[in-house]
Amino acid sequence: MSKHYDLIVIGTGITGLAAARQACQTGLATATIESHFFGGLVINVNHLDGEIEGSGSDVAAGMMMEVSDLGAANINAAVSSIEREGELFAVHSDDGVHHARAVIIAAGARLKRLGVPGEADLIDLGVSQCADCDGPMYKNKDVVVVGGGDSALQEAMVLAGYTRHVHLVHRGAGFRARQDLVDRLAGHANISVLWSTQVEAVLGSQGVEGVRVRRVGADGRSREIDCAGLFAYVGLEAACDFVASAALRDAAGFLVTDAGFQTAMPGLYAAGAVRSGYGGMLTHAIAEGVAAASAAGAASGA
Could you tell me which CATH class the domain 113-232 is placed in? Predict the structure, then answer.
């Protein structure tokens, strides 16, 4: 049976948990909806690098416990759509329809796939996006990491601690990552960088056996690299397919908000990695969740 809430928070990553905690602390009847495990992408990080210390899973677990103790309803379901019904929002999910005066989209972002032949067929058979989770499986084996940003370099260094060799494939001629990560990468003798190169295909039948790469540029030469695993970190895409087109998006598909984190639909807010302009740090995720919940509460008179 559907219950009415003051606020529904969609997503229980760090942003969603911060929003739900703030909402409960200010007296809003709050529910969270999440189809996967709480914590989002941060739970894959064993050692947080920044102002917040500890493992990602420990930080998320602590926040989830706070939210539960404060009385938020935790609904395990996948959201399919959000509609306006008079003064309320109707959040449709595979657990039924839930109603609220305001909704915060904190569904985050998901790692992009390369979209090359063989990749989809070998997910969890050597194609992975979590070095901390799967790194131990590749002890004394070779792996390929794709990307040139912070995540790619961080994950390559995690894998270097387990594997025989890491081939870091980057289509550019220089990294986009922070300089401290670039400096640290140079200290790993078992990481080699393939500049101006992109993956064309993932090879193997029962598991990853290699990748075919091609040089970007005039020569366009292709070659195969023998490896047992492929880890791609080539950016994020917003996890907001269920949000109506009335909520404006930027060119990359992330939700556009005003300074108060409200979308073009009054009463519908967005915060964290799903939002255009998100800063990307864990401290930003928490701050945006708190601010969005405060704005939603103020708008509803709480």
Answer: alpha beta
